C-alpha cells in the first residue's frame, strides 16, 4: 500500500466500512491523520457501505452487539461487547442513551456528565452538564458557511407547567440558554427520536388538555419548536 499514490489510497479507504476504519487507525500515523480529516470524513460518509449496529444496553456502560435475523424464524444472537473508552470501572453507571446518525449520547454518574460517543470509530467527548435533573436530545444541522453537518445537544428540564431549555454546540464546545417559550408539555420522556435535523416528542397542550396528544419537533438549524397533528386524535391527557 505504501507504494500506491496518496489519492488512490484515500479512494480505497473512503470505501472501507466505519467499523474497520477503527482497527486501521493504528496501522500508521499517516492513515490516522487522514481519518481525522473533515474532508475525508465527508467523502467516507458518501461512499462507504452503510452498516447497521444493534445494541442491547447493559449496566455499567456496556453495550452488547446483537445480530438480528429477520428471515424465516426471527432471531437475535450476541456477537460481541463494546464499552465506553476510559470508563471501565464498575462504579461508572450509564443510564440514558440517545441515538442520532450512528452517534450515542450517554449520561453517566447521576447525570453529572454526558458522553458523546461514536462506537464505530471509538471517539468520545466528555461534556460537563449544568444540571443533574436535565434530559437530553441529540440532533444534526448544516453549518451555514461551509454546508457540512454538525451536531447540537438539547437539554431540557421539566417543571410543573413549563420547560427550561439549553443548547450545547459540538463545534464550539459551549452551552447557552435557549430563549423559547413553550405552550406544551413534553410527554413520554425517553421515547423521543431524531430524524433529518429534528427531534420529535409526544406532547400535550399546557392550557387545553382536551386536545389530547400531538407531536412537537425541534429544528436544530432554526432552534425553534413546531407542532404537528397526529393522523388520528388521541385521548386527552390527564
From TrEMBL:
It comes from Brassica cretica. It comes from the Eukaryota. Signal peptide: none annotated. Residues 1-44 form the F-box domain. InterPro entries: F-box-assoc_dom_typ1, F-box-assoc_interact_dom, F-box-like_dom_sf, F-box_dom, Gal_Oxase/kelch_b-propeller, SCF_F-box_component. It holds the Pfam family F-box. Gene3D superfamilies: 1.20.1280.50. This is F-box domain-containing protein.
Amino acid at each position: 500500500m505504501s507504494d500506491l499514490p496518496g489519492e488512490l489510497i484515500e479512494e480505497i479507504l473512503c470505501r472501507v466500512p466505519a467499523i474497520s476504519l477503527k482497527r486501521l487507525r493504528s496501522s500508521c500515523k499517516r492513515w490516522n491523520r487522514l481519518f481525522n480529516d473533515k474532508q475525508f470524513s465527508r467523502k467516507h460518509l458518501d461512499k462507504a457501505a452503510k452498516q447497521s449496529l444493534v445494541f442491547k444496553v447493559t449496566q455499567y456502560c456496556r453495550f452488547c452487539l446483537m445480530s438480528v435475523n429477520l428471515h424465516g424464524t426471527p432471531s437475535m444472537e450476541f456477537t460481541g461487547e463494546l464499552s465506553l473508552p476510559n470508563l471501565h470501572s464498575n462504579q461508572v453507571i450509564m443510564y440514558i442513551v440517545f441515538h442520532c446518525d450512528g452517534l450515542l449520547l450517554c449520561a453517566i454518574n447521576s447525570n453529572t456528565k454526558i458522553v458523546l460517543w461514536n462506537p464505530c470509530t471509538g471517539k468520545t467527548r466528555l461534556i460537563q452538564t449544568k444540571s443533574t435533573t436535565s434530559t437530553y436530545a441529540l440532533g444534526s444541522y448544516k453549518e451555514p458557511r461551509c454546508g457540512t453537518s454538525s451536531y447540537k445537544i438539547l437539554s431540557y428540564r421539566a417543571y410543573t407547567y413549563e420547560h427550561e431549555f439549553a443548547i450545547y454546540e459540538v463545534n464550539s464546545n459551549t452551552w447557552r440558554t435557549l430563549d423559547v417559550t413553550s405552550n406544551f408539555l413534553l410527554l413520554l420522556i425517553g421515547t423521543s427520536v431524531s430524524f433529518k435535523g429534528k427531534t420529535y416528542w409526544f406532547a400535550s397542550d399546557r392550557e387545553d388538555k382536551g386536545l389530547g396528544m400531538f407531536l412537537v419537533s425541534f429544528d436544530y438549524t432554526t432552534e425553534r419548536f413546531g407542532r404537528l397533528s397526529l393522523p388520528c386524535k388521541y385521548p386527552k391527557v390527564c
